[in-house]
Write a structure and sequence with these properties.
single chain, five-stranded antiparallel β-sheet, alpha+beta, 2 helices, two-stranded antiparallel sheet
């Protein structure tokens, strides 16, 4: 039971490592550790991305809704208009290798620290939406709000932003 508790704490603390953008050590005082231990330290040995999608295969899902807009594109026209938005879901995995050290209460002299190495993968799903600021269609005058007035414009924006994100993540890919 204690091993399961420690493993859960390690995974929880490893999330702190993933929340940071760089490989770092994290030291945490945790209440859930067995009473003879006081601190958990996690060192990220390696972290890289596996399974990035091919940019040419990225597709977006679009949905439209009807809204009543005022002062459409700077004119005095007020009307019901169909506006669109699109989303892409990027799915990939972080591959990691961690060292974790459970330090005993009272310092290293009291009892031997527990040292383990763990490796695994963590799935990541990123939702990327199209940016209406890229559109020429707007309503209202103060503040001006932009919308996609066509399904294809919304899809193109979301797909372009997803491809840009994949290009950014390529630098973090695992060596083959």
């Amino acid at each position: 039971m204690a091993k399961i508790k420690i493993f859960i704490l390690v995974l929880f603390s490893a999330t702190l490592c993933f929340a940071q953008n760089t490989n770092k050590s994290v030291s945490v005082r945790l209440k859930g550790l067995p009473p003879q231990y006081s601190t958990l330290r996690i060192d990220t040995l390696s972290r890289c991305i596996v399974g990035l999608p091919d940019p040419s295969s990225i597709t977006a899902s679009a949905e439209g809704r009807t809204e009543y807009l005022k002062r459409i594109s700077g004119t005095d026209r007020n009307d019901y208009v169909k506006v669109w938005n699109a989303n892409v879901q990027l799915i990939y995995q972080w591959k990691f290798r961690l060292n974790y050290l459970i330090i005993p209460q009272g310092g290293l002299e009291a009892q031997a620290p527990v040292f383990h190495e763990a490796e695994g993968t963590r799935p990541v799903v990123e939702a990327i939406a199209g940016d209406p600021q890229e559109s020429d269609f707007f309503a209202f005058s103060s503040p001006r709000r932009y919308y996609f007035d066509s399904q294809q414009a919304a899809i193109n924006s979301a797909v372009n932003r997803a491809r840009q994100r994949v290009a950014e993540l390529r630098a973090l890919e695992c060596a083959k």
